[in-house]
Structures are given as structure tokens and as C-alpha cells.
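haha ok so turns out i had the wrong file open the whole time. this is the CORRECT one, sorry everyone. sequence first:
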Amino acid sequence: MDIKKSINKKQYQKYVKEKMPKSKLLKECALAYFFGGIICMIGQGVYDLGNYFFNFSKDEASSFTAIVMIFLGSFLTGLGVYDIIGKHAGAGSIVPITGFANSIVSSAMDFKREGLVMGIGAKLFSVAGPVLVYGITSAVIVGVIYFFAK
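then structure:
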């Protein structure tokens, strides 16, 4: 009986090895690097725009970049575009700050049928926590007020 079990195990191992999809690790790493680099280049462009066009200081340009990139990640998630990017980019789309925005918004979007307040709003609180939602929202509001007041 042990011989039958060992033969079956060997045959099964061979069968599994044949059916298992081949690793595409190198391709996936290259795509993640490429798309992550593109997202970072866009972020650098936003920083430069704030620094040179709006004459922001380094700190102001950094805050401006974070706000714009979070907005872009959230907006593209709402449109369903960020999911398409994520299919091709893999980890390259989740590592930058846009991936953070995507993770919050995509989980909240699953509950949009329940309404803006009880669906999306409530899910934002349960996923990201009140500190993140209030912190990001108040930072955007204060930033916009500061921008126009200055």
C-alpha cells in the first residue's frame, strides 16, 4: 500500500507541476516598477507645478502634491479607471499615495447603493477610521481656505 500511495503522490506532484501556471515574476516586477515610476513622475510634475507656477514653498508644494495625488487616486477609483491601472501595474499602483486613496475609496464604493451617508460615508469611517477621514477632509478644506486667503 505504501508503494501505491507514493506512486500516487508522485503522479499527483507531476500533475500539479504541469498544471500550475508559470511564474511571471520578472514581468510583473518590471510592470510594477514602470507604472510606479509613472505615478511618481506625475507626482513630481504636480510638485514642480506648485513650486514654480504657483510659487509655493517646498512645504506648501509637498502638501499640494499630496492633496492632488490623493484626489486623483480617489477620482480615478470612482470612475473605475484605477482598477484597470492596477490590473497592469500590480504593486506599482498600490505603493504610492494614490494606492492609499484607492484602498479607501474602492471599499466605500461597494456600498454606494445604500446612499451617500449610510453607504459610502459610513463605510469610509469603518474602513479608514474617523481620524483619517476627518484628518484628510479637514486638511483639504484648510488647504483650500489657506490657498484662497493667501
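The CA atoms of residues 144 and 150 lie 10 Å apart.
again sry for the mixup
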